[in-house]
Amino acid sequence: MNPVKYVGAVVIAAFLVQGCSTTKYEETWESMAVHEAAPEWFQDAKLGIYFHWGVYSVPAYRTEWYPWGMHRPGDGVYDYHKKTYGHPSEFGYHDFVPMFKAEHFDPEEWADLFVATGARFAGPVAEHHDGFAMWASKATPWNAAERGPKRDVLGELFQSLEKRDVKTIATFHHARNLQRYPAVVEPAHMDDLKVGGEYKGNPHWNSHYTNIEGMPPSSGDPELQKLYGNMPEEQWVEEIWLAKLKEVISQYQPDIIWFDSWLDSIPEHTRQEFCATYLNAAEKWNKDVVIVRKQKDLPVEFTVNDHEKSREPKALPEVWMTDDTISTGSWSYTSGLKVKPVSQVIHSLIDTVAKNGIMLLNVSPRADGVIPDDQRAVMNELGEWLKMNGEAIYETRPWTISAEGPTAEPSGGFADAKKFLKLKYTAKDIRYTRSKDGQTVYAMILGWPGAGETSVFEAFAEDASSVKAVRMLGCDEKLEWSLAADGLHVVMPSKAPDVSAVSFAIEVE
């Protein structure tokens, strides 16, 4: 056979096998701008669950940022670590890895719990800032399949979730793992790096590990460098940051990839390569995937914006997300961690959904793989509330009016996180959603007015004549209601299905 014709035939055959496909997305923001940021399934889902669980769960002290503080002289975590485990030069963060055994981790049971909570998508913090991967990774030996639990945590959980038709999310926080400050910082010079308790320079503080001579993060051991991010930036960006993302994409096909802050520290062309890789892979999988980011680290045209521990004061035309935790403190499990009352979680969910948002709720398992009972109680109560009131949450869209009542949300985002934590709603606060066909408006009261009391939905004052019928979700009693110039008047039934919040389905013309 003519070799030229043979080569040509092979090329044509390969082209045909690939279905005559071409790459849809190029590595430019303009090309990817056509991707739909929030596909319909995501808009319908409303609630997802993820969890901060990793090596930092072993010391269970103060915060998931334990490895950040344990290497910084003067930090409270540093002092605790010295007292409890010894000097970090002798007992480094990597020495916690064998102690992270996860002996009670049961992905099937966790998946059942997440479904019972009402989550429509779920998944782990795939990697926090600490450099430890929660999947079977070839990019780093510091992964859960090889060390610590010696199990593919992400893979096993994804498999359990997918069996239950739950979408999957993998979250990445590893953009700050690279050491971006001078190679060696002598202890005598530590004060030169501090500004108001933070670390400065180039931006030096924007790295998870402090490089002090004699401590593990300064090690020249190639293996330790992969955990502590102590290597040249170009090498780390390609072999660690991007390689880990590509692994999770190719091995697990997540429906959502979510990023913590600091993507602006990653070269733009590398961020473009990630986005194109993920979106083109999703085209082959025939999946509508979602990229979530914080701040302005990726273009908003094809990604979803996330607010940490905060929400929007008004409904937005575009879909957004809030990630918040079930506790009042650390994202990861710590000794004495306090958990929010379920009413606070329900109110946050309602306010989020009314304003075109999605809630990503964090839970905090112990290092042994047990999700504590107090967290489970809140999760189960949230699930019970959603069983009765889910019609007003799932598959809904924002109404022309999203909220009324005296309690308003701050507008400062994460900077106002403490204010959001202190918000107290009452039975005078109402949030609205609507069905996708527009035939039903849902009014959710963030409390219980009391049996026989009358609530006024002022949003109907201008167009009250459009109301056809009113019913309370989870209640069989026939309601008394009437229309007036100041809105829709509804008399509360003899008993509340749940005093945390009650929902009304209002049929309209």
Summarize the structure.
It is built from 13 helices and 19 strands. By secondary structure, it is α/β, with parallel strands linked by helices. The strands form four sheets. Strands 1-2-3-6-7-8-9-10 form an eight-stranded parallel beta barrel. Strands 11, 12, 13, 14, 16 and 19 form a six-stranded antiparallel beta sheet that branches.
Structural commentary:
The longest helix is centred in the middle third of the chain and has 20 residues, at 233-252. Residues 1-20 and 198-204 have low confidence and may be disordered. The protein is globular, with a radius of gyration of 25 Å. With 509 residues, it is of the alpha/beta class. The strands form four sheets. The chain has an eight-stranded parallel beta barrel with strand order 1-2-3-6-7-8-9-10. Strands 11, 12, 13, 14, 16 and 19 form a six-stranded antiparallel sheet that branches. The protein has helices spanning 3-17, 29-32, 40-45, 66-70, 76-84, 107-117, 153-163, 222-228, 233-252, 268-285, 342-354, 373-389, 417-422; strands spanning 47-51, 121-127, 167-172, 194-195, 198-199, 256-259, 290-294, 304-308, 320-325, 357-363, 396-397, 403-404, 430-435, 440-445, 454-457, 467-472, 481-484, 487-491, 502-508.
Task: For this entry, give a set of tags.
509 residues; alpha/beta; Immunoglobulin-like; 3 domains; eight-stranded parallel β-barrel; six-stranded antiparallel beta sheet; disordered N terminus
